[in-house]
Design a protein that fits this description.
By secondary structure, this protein is α/β, with parallel strands linked by helices. It has a domain at 91-190 and 245-350: Rossmann fold, CATH 3.40.50.1110. It has 13 helices and nine strands. The protein has helices spanning 9-12, 14-36, 39-50, 114-117, 127-135, 151-161, 178-189, 193-208, 214-223, 241-244, 262-276, 290-301, 325-345, and strands at residues 51-54, 58-61, 66-72, 78-85, 107-112, 140-143, 167-174, 280-286, 305-309. The strands form three sheets. Strands 6-5-7-8-9 form a five-stranded parallel β-sheet, sandwiched between helices. A two-stranded antiparallel sheet has the order 1-2. Helix 12 (290-301) links the parallel strand 8 (280-286) and strand 9 (305-309). It is globular. The N and C termini lie far apart (98 Å). The model has no long low-confidence stretch (mean pLDDT 88).
């Protein structure tokens, strides 16, 4: 029997037909993007695969992932091209061949954001990995850095691993954007259970679709755009650890933002958490920007050991700003020196 109603299928079932056409168009677009796979879109997709939504810190690393992250300059040369590999507990490791750090009685938790994680360099070139080679076998170093973390995410990740990897030391590399990241994380933590669930579903959908990554690919392309690579890259001798330390500012110049702020509240809770376990905390505040000066002053006023430091441009990724391999090595040398000085003051070394 034929349908005697006038008009075609679209006229008879406009919504159903329109939805089918839209779904087909989206499927074709998804297939086309996967076939062409422009580099910024691959970068956005791999970023999603390596990261996940966090109800505590807004973002975190996914366990047992290994991705290659590359963004090119305008001349086609790589601005950065590095591998990001995580172990089963969701922190950066050298490769997936091992399940994590070897057993040890004492650990150092290196916490912070992308500067700690080693954004732009492979895991073996990150400052925690370089530091691990300097401190082994006495201390094993965990790289708990995650891009997008402030103190809330950084300290929560350390606390969550403290029973399995009891810290003797923790080193928090504070960067000026941590205060803003913590304010966003605090907002995320206030969401209700249903809203968290919706964001987790959305996060999973974005991870599985190239099409959903288009806005992020455009954002990343603008964020990391750079001109042609320099014709000649100047070589600079590795600085001494002392050269990275910045002069102590006068107290009045640091009074720029007053606590309480989520960053400082998290630091106080973490200080007490470590003290109860007999562990010590060192804060390295990056640069002399207002937020770093405030963090330095806050730490000093609350009995937290803190130093102000910076890494020269020659040791950073050109046109991007994160530490290059040489910059990470320099930071590892600085941390090693400060840890030794702290232990000497405490009478732990002869």
């Amino acid at each position: 029997m034929t349908d005697a109603r006038p008009g075609g299928r679209f006229e008879r079932h406009p919504r159903l037909t329109g939805a089918g056409l839209l779904a087909g168009a989206l499927l074709l677009a998804e297939l086309a993007l996967r076939l062409v796979a422009p580099l910024p879109l691959v970068f956005a997709h791999e970023m999603r695969r390596a990261h996940r939504y966090s109800r505590v810190a807004r973002v975190d690393l996914r366990p047992s992932q290994s991705v290659r992250l590359r963004i090119d300059r305008s001349d086609g040369q790589a601005l950065f091209d590095f591998e990001l590999t995580t172990g089963p507990e969701g922190f950066r490791i050298g490769d997936l061949a091992g399940s994590g750090p070897p057993p040890a009685a004492r650990f150092l938790h290196a916490i912070g954001d992308s500067y700690t994680m080693g954004w732009g360099v492979d895991g073996a070139s990150s400052y925690p990995a370089r530091l691990a080679r300097r401190l082994a076998p006495e201390l094993q170093v965990l790289n708990l850095g995650v891009d997008g973390f402030g103190a809330i995410g950084a300290t929560a990740k350390s606390r969550g691993l403290a029973d399995r990897y009891p810290p003797a030391w923790a080193v928090y590399l504070f960067s000026p954007n941590d205060i803003d990241d913590d304010e966003r994380a605090a907002g995320v933590a206030r969401r209700g259970g249903l809203e968290h669930s919706a964001h987790e579903i959305l996060d999973g959908l974005r991870r599985s679709s190239y099409l959903a990554g288009v806005p992020f690919a455009l954002r990343y392309r603008l964020q990391f755009r750079a001109g042609p690579a320099p014709a000649v890259v100047a070589t600079t001798p590795a600085p001494s650890p002392e050269a990275l330390l910045l002069p102590e500012p006068p107290p009045q110049t640091a009074a720029l933002r007053a606590p309480p702020l989520p960053t400082f509240s998290a630091l106080l809770q973490y200080r007490d958490f470590l003290a109860a376990r007999g562990a010590r905390l060192l804060v390295l505040a990056l640069s002399n920007q207002p937020e770093s000066l405030q963090a330095l002053r806050f730490c000093r006023e609350h009995g937290i050991e803190a130093r102000l430091f910076d890494v020269p441009p020659a040791l950073r990724i050109p046109d991007e700003g994160h530490f290059g391999a040489a910059g990470n090595e320099a930071v590892a040398g600085l941390v090693e020196r400060l840890l030794r000085e702290g232990r000497e003051r405490a009478g732990e070394l002869e």
